[in-house]
Amino acid sequence: MDDRVPRVPEQRRPGSSSSAEPAMLRFDVLGPVRAWRGEESLATGSPQQRALLAALLLREGRTATAAELIDALWGEEPPSQALAAVRTYASRLRKVLDPGVLVSESGGYAVRGLGEGALDLAVAQELATEAEKARGAGDLCHAREVLNRALALWNGEALAGVPGPYAEAQRVRLEEWRLQLLESRLDMDLEQGCHAEAVSELTALTAAHPLRERFRELLMLALYRSGRQAEALAVYADTRRLLAEELGVDPQPALRELQRRILQADPDLAEPSAPAAEPTSAPVRPAQLPATVPDFTGRSSFVAELSEVLAGASGPEGAGSGRVMAVSALAGIGGVGKTTLAVHVAHRARSAFPDGQLYVDLQGAGGRAAEPETVLGSFLRALGTADSAIPDSLEERAALYRSVLDGRRVLLLLDNARDAAQIRPLLPGTAGCAALVTSRVRMVDLAGAHLVDLDVMSPDEALALFTKIVGQERVAAEREAALDVVAACGFLPLAIRIAASRLAARRTWTVSVLAAKLADERRRLDELQAGDLAVKATFELGYGQLEPAQARAFRLLGLADGPDISLAAAAAVLDLPVEETEDLLESLVDTSLLESAAPGRYRFHDLVRLYARACAERDEWPPSERGAALSRLLDFYLATAAGVYAIERPGDRLVNHLEGTEYPRLGFEDRHRAQDWLYSEANCLLACVRQSVGGDVLRRAVDLLWASKDLAESGANAREYEAAARTLCDAARDMRDARAEGRARTALTHAHVVAGRFKEADDEARQAMELAARARDPLPGCCAPNDRGIIAIYENRHADGERYLQQAIDNFRADGNDVGEASALCNLSRIHLATGRTSSAIELAQQGIDIYDRMGLTLRLANGRYALGIALTQAGRLSEALEQLTEALALFHDNRQPLWEGVTHFRIAEAHLAAQRPTLAAGHAEQAIALRGIGGEWRRGTVLTVLGKALAAVGQSDRARACWQEALSIYERLGSSEATEVRTLLAPAAAA
Q1: Greatest C-alpha distance within the chain
Q2: Is pTM beyond 0.70 here?
């Protein structure tokens, strides 16, 4: 019995039970002809008997005469007993199928009474129709999903193994239909910006169907939109040459026109030719404005002024006024209400900007303002751009952003900007768009901006705001006291809101009670001056009314760096149970001194955080409690990160050499939840590392960085990880702590290796080895020589590599670290492989795998299978190699290791190339390239080299040359020896 999972699900009538209802018959023709009863595969007989069944199924219930069936099975030369054979086949099928399914009628036969979804072809036709309707309605996301379901119904060649002229004709028809569905789906892929992902599939399709010009056209467009113009033009050159050689014709006009537009860098090619309504997962009409406050008060002159500016940008006269766009910049001290006013005005103007509204908090008042390239990435995603289509550099992102906004009417609210330089890349370049900017500084250097200086409220406006929050009845009864309150607040809106909210939440208080509290003697009045002091005085109002436990939480939580803090981390800072911590934090949220960023996560406004730290320095007693709070946070992160490391790498003894911790770690149900924690806490964890650079916390900070080394390979956190490692290296060197410095340099080595900077990595690893010897520290003593061995492999320094790896093996064995020994053995396997010792290379890799298997590891087992796959490839045992590499790829994917996913795709491509399967090789190379930003430029060069070889093997020589030229440019820029091989590859092409 075939154990393949049926591709058309069983259908049941509503209200029936599975036990009472007989299983439904189902049939497959989009592959081998098969019949199923529920999960049971039915015997359909000889090839001719299956041909009869297929002919009847494809007639969709219509009767086929005996003569028609004979012609379908044997054509013009039927056997003498053809009619008897047809009757025999029909009789046998009746015994297999349900009664009444195969019927005799008018001297012929028909298949009747099948349930809905019983024939895979009928299901595919229904799905294709549904996709066409969804596309016509503009729902590309649903159309793509439905077409993918239709295409997934094919299981190889339709009517596979079925003889006869009728089956052959139907095979051709169904294959042509499948290719048309593929073209339609790929066309929609490009319309939705998935061009980088489509390149791999289109490369394989053009190799399999070299004369199908539509695939070539889509591939050219996908490459062009992926920033690979030279390859796109090379595809056209390959196509023109192939058509001339094979058919003696030129490319079709559509292909020639596309080449012309690419040569002219037609800006319309950068976007879909027929934009459609985007799905909710990739909205093209973002509505990101924060909610406006229901009690917005006053500011009528500013509202009118700003509304007029926005109307000029969006109206007909604005479009033709010669003004590129409208920019209004609101400046004022913290707490003056810039954001509230901007959000209110933006909501009033929403209808004038029908293509969407974008919002971002640029965090300019803090020490770590948002980077423009990060903001642009977020905006592009909100505007419907796929992640794979977003370039890396600030300049490219800004250019793409301006292109996406061209012709649209979008309103931007850029809140809390640091300076004009931060927002210039974020401004659209087209008429019809507008930007509202808030900042603590006046942006006099922002060309063309409409500047607005926002001052405190007038007494009447301040009292009106206070009244809206507290209630008319309470204020009317104590108007003078209310005036005293708003005056004590300095008429700052944020201060008024905090005070009024506290009063509104306490029904037993009178306004006079609040006024008496705010009269607050000397310190507050001294701080109600100008600049930052006035902001701090505003926060003093809320802080002074906190209960002692709330005030302590406010002070200590403000000490921690990072964009926000989780509930568990906050509990560590406060040294309190999670439940009690949550109650305190929620009470701080009620006072507006803390924000709830998401369930279980909290954050300070930048200025509130600064104020909280000032309070901690002033009020926390004993002063040592400030350091103790941060020490507990570091303990929590280190203990939990070490736990994650141990879950991912059970048996690795290096984790036993980390600094001890006193605060308990989080526990996790499984490996995936542990990884979720590490990546969700990445920014906060690395901020804690950077903050812990002195005294007795340095060593723990270094160990935290080492335990979270997966972050260096994630792509999203690689730069922050490297920066933290550099900071710790400098701090450890200044403190002359050889142990800490050795471990920090080991972490920095790892960051350099991931980025492909091997010279810098080797220098750091050399220093780490020297420091490890001085400090007698086994952690860098094991890792650094292993790293140097890996670096030597990449740099083809095989004698050095073998010496380092043997040293690493000896050190791991001395430490009793079987997992580390296995890693070094797998690396040594590659040295043996490179020096022609193939048999011993395979044996070494197998030794490593045996250790991993014995210890029940997963992630490290992937590394072992990767090494064995490389060795088997070079030994010519390609099927075994692909088996090992495919298993490694699945393990790397499951363990969220994008770097290793990419290099494994590269190795699989090499194996397919050696097996003379260039189409498959090109597909895997493209998937390696699609993991852009992972592994650095050197690795991209290696993948481009192999991709070029695969393309050359399928006859796409011009595109192959484009790949090699890009690879050569990378290698020459890096000074890599691999440039020699690429020049050799290019030499025959140049001669040709």
Answers
A1: 116
A2: no
